[in-house]
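Final report, section 2: Outcomes. Of the targets proposed, Nicotinamidase-related amidase is the one most frequently requested by collaborating groups, and we therefore present its record in full.
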Amino acid sequence: MTVTTLDPKSALIVVDLQKGIVTLPSVHPIAGVIANASALATSFRRHGLPVVLVNVAGGAPGRTERAHARGTLPPDWADLIPELNAQPGDYKVTKLTWGAFANTDLDALLKELGVTQVVLAGVASSIGVETTAREAYALGFNVTIATDAVTDLDAGAHENSVTRIFPRLGETGTKQEIIDLLDRSA
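The predicted structure is given below as tokens.
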């Protein structure tokens, strides 16, 4: 479903746009994803709406078939990229799992702020963004994903998230469609 509306109390959640992740190869050029996520953040701030900047600083302790890079990451790996222009009024969430809601105070924070809808941007489409979207949906938030402000390391996984999963969790739209809706509602 194409994005049709934004609730008056919407929040932007930018997932894992951090130094250690944006250097990885991605399906779409990361510079465009960063520019679109940054433009969304600027627009949400201009409208006085919450901006949540999420980074990942580790991983869940469970066993997996793929090795974790824990303990071998550079010291600035989890630092948010400067292009996001983090502001003092932004909210920062550090997660240790794929989703931004699990084992963090994000749900309580958004509910305290009266937020009823979240708009998502970031990486990876099929991991951090999709898991956060699933959690938000399960918690009762309206969900919108900015399709030109997300990317993945794997083309098939990205395509699956954008075409099959995201439309089941909420609405999708471009950065510009979302900004236009914000501007119309002002």
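The radius of gyration is 15 Å.
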